[in-house]
Amino acid sequence: MIDLRLSGGLAAAALLLSPLPAAAKDIVIHMKNQGADGAMVFEPSFVKAAPGDTIRFKPSDPSHNAETMANMLPAGATPVKGAMNKEMVLTVAKPGLYGIKCMPHYSMGMVALVQVGKVSAAELTAAKAAKLPPFAAKRMTAALAKVK
Ligand SMILES: [Cu+2]
Questions:
Q1: Is 103 annotated as a binding residue?
Q2: What pTM does this model have?
Q3: Can you say whether the dihedral through the CA atoms of 38, 43, 47, 52 is positive or negative?
Q4: What structural domains does the chain harbor?
Q5: Quick check: 130 and 101 in contact, CB under 8 A?
Q6: Could you tell me the distance, in angstroms and rounded to a whole number, from the CA of residue 121 to the centre of ligand 1?
Q7: How far is CA 61 from each of CA 25, 43, 126, rounded to the nearest angstrom?
Q8: Any known ligand binding at 110?
Q9: Stretch 23-50: mean pLDDT
């Protein structure tokens, strides 16, 4: 989804007419009690973004939060911790891998992965080596397999 909430229609029209630069994307991830991958999930649990994009973690069901994982965050990226039952907005400036967890359901495997831009082999290896609780590790491994 492209966010066109700019100040006034003229700015939006100018943006639509202009071929460059590519507008930053607005990507939505839902926090759900039940999804295609089972109970307590981020959906989708893997997204690919570009630097400057915004990822919105929406509390589609209650009792969830979204926060960045200290052991899976690009160097120099600012950690973000969303409040319970609130949308968490993550604007990704740095390329790399951003691991996301829901604190209450981390041990139940409620994790997501955001790939921003290109990821080096060393960075992918480091992410795969990060220590996670067993159910979280299982879903994170599946997400890391989608990185390319
Ligand atoms: Cu949760």
A1: no
A2: 0.85
A3: negative
A4: 23-144 (2.60.40.420)
A5: no
A6: 30
A7: 24, 12, 32
A8: yes
A9: 97
